[in-house]
Amino acid sequence: MSEQVRIGIIGYGAQGSVYARMLAEGSIPGATLGGVADHNEARRSIAAETHAETPLFENYPSLLHSGSVDAVVTTVPHYLHPEVAMAALDAGLHVLVEKPAGVYTAQVRELNEFAATKPELTFAIMFNQRTNPLYRKIKEIVDAGEIGAIRRSNWIITTWWRPQGYYEQSAWRATWGGEGGGVLVNQAPHQLDLWQWICGVPQSVVAKAGFGFRRDIAVEDEVTAMVDYGDGATGVFITATHDLIGTDRFEILGDKGKIVVDGSATATVTRLVKDEQEISADVGAEDVGKMFKGQLNFDDMHESETISFDSAWGSQHGEVLRNFAANVRGEEPLLAPGSDGMNGVRLANAIHLSAWLGREVPIDFDEAEYLSELNSRIRDEGQFPERS
């Protein structure tokens, strides 16, 4: 390998062009732009003008076998992520997959299993919110047991407002056959990842989703999902693309405290002096009377702190690229291993399936049943091939 990791961009669209610029201008330590592949001639022309010294390719196989790159980033339509990633791994290249890892679990499982046969290669996913210092600190607090066992979590994330014109930009957008879903697949994968990264993977889910609820689209633009973690612990996830005002509030309640995150920017962490049930047992009948009179001192039962960090939005994508290159060079572990991409896709699929069937479904649902339901909707659209 050269002194720097030569990274190729597959798909020079909105996101791919950003990564190419970051690499070309030297913003990613240890990495450089090695090549760009895009089947669209107009986008290749823009890339040629912007990156005159960079090799350009009409398709991704040509890039993979060119010898110009050591690694690639897959910024292609969702359905193509596993296909392109496996081809790159098969060519002996390191891979950073853009989110989501795929559209349905069967294809992501195939990708993960193939990647496992190439342990010498770095396989990562662009979960850039894992680099957010606020969420990394929250995960540390939860993992250290500072708020005890999690009993409930809920995330309202409706800051994804999209007008009708957004969906009319391209024929594939907001379709089952072209994009594979709506807000769960396009806007909210980062929160689905963070939720499980911090709070754990649930056992089952029951969901209500609005398909074309407030927009003229086939896929979901409104979702309310409740998950079951077992042992009485639950979680609620609410997201939408029609809330003009928008809310981003994440709460985690534990036996020994609570974390409340507002706007993905500030967290209030409250730690109880001891387990809540112990506190409850210590409050006798006389104290209950004081409580209803406003005379019970709750301040002695807990302490709170507010946590916030300065974190530029664009820097988070750059940090994943930097970490990816560092891992390729054997310098540090991955922040987001590619195999973790399964968690968000699986939960999104389970939410879809629950909403379609009108019942609770296990997180390890019947993949054949999901694919059958998905293909029935692709057939109804009549624009795209069915999936297998």
TrEMBL record:
Residues 5-119 form the Gfo/Idh/MocA-like oxidoreductase N-terminal domain. It comes from the Bacteria. GO terms for molecular function: nucleotide binding. Residues 135-259 form the GFO/IDH/MocA-like oxidoreductase domain. Keywords: NAD. Pfam families: GFO_IDH_MocA (PF01408), GFO_IDH_MocA_C3 (PF22725). This is Predicted dehydrogenase. It comes from Ruania alba.
